[in-house]
Design brief:
With 179 residues, this protein is of the alpha+beta class. The chain has one domain: Ribosomal protein L5 (50s Ribosomal Protein L5, Chain: A, 2-Layer Sandwich). The protein contains seven helices and five strands. The radius of gyration is 18 Å and the shape is globular. The chain starts with a helix and ends in a 6-residue tail after the last helix.
């Protein structure tokens, strides 16, 4: 059992029960999954291979190519062409990546004070942010020449919260830096 999983089971659950007064334990909010997404404007095989390899190095899981559903003349993309890559993390691997993100990545970001959450995102069940320079990950930094042209990495945390108070409480209790 990972530290964050243990922390959720033994501390956060009890805090949620005491604060929001749930009648059934099945309705407790929790972190469901983390989605990692690289979007590409071009469908060059060299860039897509680097994206897939970078996701595998970061998370030790295989990513999936995403294809375009519509053609776009301005971007010169045909329908069905690969335009990026995504990976969904769940359970223990999700908690491993989450701890790496909090302890290693956020500390390396310059001038990072936390996430500004807007009122619109409070009503949703997910929060998303971009990491512009993917070379912050030590696995990618070692092979700079392969990963120097990566697009921004989009990271989305998905929860099963019902309202904005639960959403903020859950993210704060996981020690996610929020302003």
């Amino acid at each position: 059992m990972h530290f964050f999983e243990y922390y959720y089971e033994n501390i956060i659950k009890y805090d949620l029960i005491n604060k929001f007064h749930y009648k059934d334990i099945k309705h407790l909010p929790k972190l469901k999954k983390i989605i990692l997404n690289f979007g590409c404007k071009s469908s060059e095989l060299k860039i897509l291979a680097a994206i897939l390899l970078s996701l595998e190095l970061i998370t030790t899981q295989h990513g999936v190519l995403t294809t375009s559903k519509n053609s776009n003349i301005l971007l010169k993309i045909r329908k069905g062409n690969p335009v990026g890559c995504k990976l969904i993390l769940k359970k223990t691997i999700m908690y491993n990546f989450f701890s790496k993100l909090i302890y290693e990545i956020f500390s390396k970001l310059k001038n990072f004070t936390g996430f500004n959450i807007k009122y619109k995102s409070l009503n949703s069940k997910a929060i998303s942010f971009n990491i512009q320079n993917s070379l912050i990950f030590s696995e990618l930094e070692q092979n700079y020449y392969l990963f120097n042209k990566l697009p921004p990495l989009n990271i989305t945390f998905v929860t099963n919260t019902v309202n904005s108070n639960e959403f903020l409480f859950l993210l704060n209790s996981f020690k996610l830096p929020i302003k």
